[in-house]
């Protein structure tokens, strides 16, 4: 059996979301908001191959979420009319690990900046990873 | 401007991937491998609402990846015939933050165990989060 090597995982922001939207939409799938993913300059070479028109997956950190507690294991998403769901069946920002995932459309790229559509993050949100969006 | 509150982010596994597959496929989108997501029992209530037939997004930790170095900012994915790409335009497990994302299909659920299809992780991989898969 594989022995766990780690129990606490340390991550660090690779950049930040910049947007002028004050109240971001609830979810990327219904967002037409635009913004910029500003990657730390040291990581700019890692963007090679991304081009306007691409869809990307952005993993980010919900840095304004409260600490997770057992009461948050089941939540009532506001748009579901009071129905209670397990946190892993929701997109709530209040999660055991406060990780967010959005699918965004790239509209332009220059050096360490990706202009994107579909923003559902607050200005300043720490970005952890960017991946190609693969449709099965 | 939003002031960053954090620079190192601490996450913890919420469970583990279990699979008998020794050499997992390169990517979930081409995988027919099955396995089990075993969530720590304390988080079992968070699975409420997930049912057989659902597609889920699983975020996990590439716990066997080497430390990231600048040489890994551009990589040549084996299936692309030598083409060099920025790490953020690939699904390589060697990333600044070693986070993986797979879309899996739930075939059964019981208490803290989700039986799934589409496995592309090694047995023992730490799971960080589970979300509904939303198609735009």
Describe this structure in words.
The structure is a homodimer. Chain A has about 140 residues and is mainly β. Chain A has a domain at about 15-65 and about 90-130: YaeB-like (Elongation Factor Tu (Ef-tu), domain 3, Beta Barrel). Helix content of chain A is about 0%, strand content about 35%. Chain A is built from no helices and 9 strands. The first copy, chain A, has strands at about 10, 15-20, 35-40, 55-60, 75, 85, 100-110, 115, 125-130. Chain A has a 6-stranded antiparallel beta barrel with strand order 2-3-8-7-4-9. A two-stranded antiparallel sheet of chain A has the order 5-6. In chain A, strand 7 (about 100-110) and strand 8 form a beta hairpin. The mean pLDDT of chain A is about 90. Chains A and B meet through strand 1, strand 4, strand 6, strand 7 and strand 9 of A and strand 1, strand 4, strand 6, strand 7 and strand 9 of B.
Short structural description:
Chain A has 136 residues and is mainly beta. Helix content of chain A is 0%, strand content 35%.
